[in-house]
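User: structure tokens for this one?
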Amino acid sequence: MGTFEELVAEGAAVPLEGWDFSWFEGRATEERPPWGYASLIAGKLAAVESALDLQTGGGEVTASAPVKPPLLAVTESWPPNAAVAVRNLPDALVVRVPDEGPLPFHDSMFDLVISRHPVVTPWDEVARVLKPGGTYFSQQIGEGTNRELTEFMMGPQPVGGARSTERARAEAEAAGLEVLRLEPAALKVAFFDVGAVVHFLRKVLWTVPGFTVERYRDRLLDMHEHIQEHGEFVCTSTRFLVEAGKP
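Assistant:
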């Protein structure tokens, strides 16, 4: 293992485009949710004629599905990620739009709308573009995710309800959708060196808003010393699976 400065520099140099976390192999682990989102999505994509993947990142999860529908569209707001999605999904329509919408698609256009870890869910737009009988299926970030890491870096922070399952249900129903499945999970995350922490905080921006190495160097040094003493830094990520149908 390198020195503090070497590890921090390494984590700060990793490219951020795409939503591929393979760089963390051997340096951090995250327990996977029990439902197996990628395999569930693969089955659903194979069973429909049209699908929309919202906030796709680099399109990695959708690209992993062996069978895709004849009509596949994806959205992404960040240009570097959109470029990766074009490469990963050459047969899909890749559209750059704000995460909040509006969506540039006709009413009742898609059998299936999916989204993995959306920044925000535009429920009204999801309901609008779904066909009657269509389904929204999403794995989302839950409230208080990785709170231990956030508070190690920033001190005590309030936990709001913006990412609660209760709010997801209420907003889905307000948009006219019927919630068919809503399942939460709490998952262990472990970081084995401070470089992995740096890269994670650069990539997952909402964990420590405004994070830079320079601004948080003292806390990163404390993190480095903590990992040296304990072998890891452990926190808990929260996820929930939501499936909602359009009558």
